[in-house]
Design brief:
The structure is a homotrimer. The first copy, chain A, is α/β, with parallel strands linked by helices. Helices cover about 45% and strands about 25% of the residues of chain A. In chain A, strands 1, 2, 3, 4, 5, 6, 7, 8 and 9 form a 9-stranded mixed β-sheet that branches. In chain A, a hairpin with a 4-residue loop joins strand 1 (about 10-15) and strand 2 (about 20-25). In chain A, helix 1 packs parallel to helix 3 (about 80-100). The two termini of chain A are about 30 Å apart. Mean pLDDT of chain A is about 85; it is low at about 1-5 and about 225-230. Chains in contact: A-B, A-C, B-C. Chains A and B meet through helix 6 and helix 7 of A and helix 6, helix 9 and helix 10 of B.
Amino acid sequence: MAAQDEGSIGLVQVSDAYWRATFDLPPLNIFGPPNIPQLDEIVSSLESDTCAKVVVFDSAVDGFFLTTHDDFLAKPEGSARFPAVRSGLQALSDIFARLSKASVVSISSIRGRATGVGSELALATDMRFASREKAVLSLWKVGTALVPGGGPMASLPRLMGRGRALELLIGADEVNGDMAELYGYVNRSVPDDQLDGFVDALARGICSFEKQAIAEIKRTIRLNSLPFFSG
Amino acid sequence: MAAQDEGSIGLVQVSDAYWRATFDLPPLNIFGPPNIPQLDEIVSSLESDTCAKVVVFDSAVDGFFLTTHDDFLAKPEGSARFPAVRSGLQALSDIFARLSKASVVSISSIRGRATGVGSELALATDMRFASREKAVLSLWKVGTALVPGGGPMASLPRLMGRGRALELLIGADEVNGDMAELYGYVNRSVPDDQLDGFVDALARGICSFEKQAIAEIKRTIRLNSLPFFSG
Amino acid sequence: MAAQDEGSIGLVQVSDAYWRATFDLPPLNIFGPPNIPQLDEIVSSLESDTCAKVVVFDSAVDGFFLTTHDDFLAKPEGSARFPAVRSGLQALSDIFARLSKASVVSISSIRGRATGVGSELALATDMRFASREKAVLSLWKVGTALVPGGGPMASLPRLMGRGRALELLIGADEVNGDMAELYGYVNRSVPDDQLDGFVDALARGICSFEKQAIAEIKRTIRLNSLPFFSG
């Protein structure tokens, strides 16, 4: 599978085991309804591939990890597009749940703004690392009500406790890399010039595990951390 | 509703949506049995008011956020007052549980000593912020056995993990602002001269949400973080 | 009970309430099958003693807290010793579960390398403190699959969230004291020259509690943090 056209989600197989999905939707890396089938195809490939062990999600657009098209933010009750929006959200929610359950380790390498779908995707991946200087996270504040089952944000209190989860969902406008590390939103905040090398080394290390061992470890962690409806 | 008399819990409505409850029980801000109906009335008002969105709990007494009357600390087996103490604790426990479930966001702004009832109240509120220089937290060490259902302290391991919760309950004498932040006891430790402004801005930001959205976000967080008996 | 022979796990009663178990297996503090009955005996003594309130696990071997004999690391499917290894792991798993449930507070004072059985033991104790300069933690990466029920590592996501737990289990080679503190793996990282004094003071403080209160606090914490199969 080669890199796809510009203006989509580029998928590169660094090796049989190590895949990389790069959001390349200039100028603002806005994820919209047309990107749903693209993301669905990538996750389907990860699920069915017998060699894939790790996938890194990152961005090719300066200043933006991944943001959200207004269509997703339209309030259901104020929009004639409600059925389509709702259906899109349901589809996204399913894709995120499948990503969490896949026997592939997924890593978000966050540089630039991650908002809405961007923060949901980051929370759906297994690990998150943020550029200390350039990551800006903000949650999709109406998301909890919109996304069926609470979406990946349901995992927030498990990552950081009730008080901090509530602050991020309802209070904080933006979270930088260091605060994201303090709150446990990301695994670690890494100096920007070391982020790519750090994530690359981690991904290559994961490739040294057997695929079956990865699946079992992910399963054990999931049974002991995610809400029942994600099991 | 105007500020109440000195020597009680002052309640001020900064706006329809933004309330402030200030412990003003000089000289040591000791919470005793007579303060139970006062706190109960405040929480009842918050529950029934159709405009309230956020309440900040703070202190008007230098050096003390909120502490505990000896009557609550009397050991049941060594006290003829057992039924009254037990009843008071049950009433407090109910008030704290209602505060957690209310569709109003509650914030503790902790400056000075928070012990016993003070730490229970802080843990019952949705978020906690501590003065970096002036907050001193200590847990009510026999509380777990006394408070029905474990009380808000039952949420400690969810905030900070089992090891740190046990250390605070059974080991550490006092916790300052920075350690409280490291352990996740408070959302953040804020320099003392910035604490009031920080909390005020956060409270005003929360007022921009619709009351129904606040209630739904709190409900989602609660389902994913609090023990079943707090649901 | 006096200190045991060199080359075993030394048990010293600093006082009736305060016990100390010291791994003294030079030159590398390797825990092997013969050490299982020794650890079993120590935990049995802690369970049955009516005065013991706290036990500190530490090391007498420079550079090593506790490591693991190759026999435990043999892959079941590649070893004729499978039944013995499996049985040893089952026995260890039971000992760790009993330690978690005992009405004695257990503390790991980690200086040097803690790998395999060493990290499992540390996670089974109630609290962990690490030498800032000299602790090196690494997880027994195939452990989750081998240890029945997931072992103490099942508690990792509760201590630090899913993303960090997965990184430690599948990614990070080694964790030093400060990273262990940031991730919540240990309660705190303490400067090496203060570690012994800090843990000693904590242990003596715990001895001031009544044994029954300790048991009740541990029980409340356990109900609110550990997975059901550890209850």
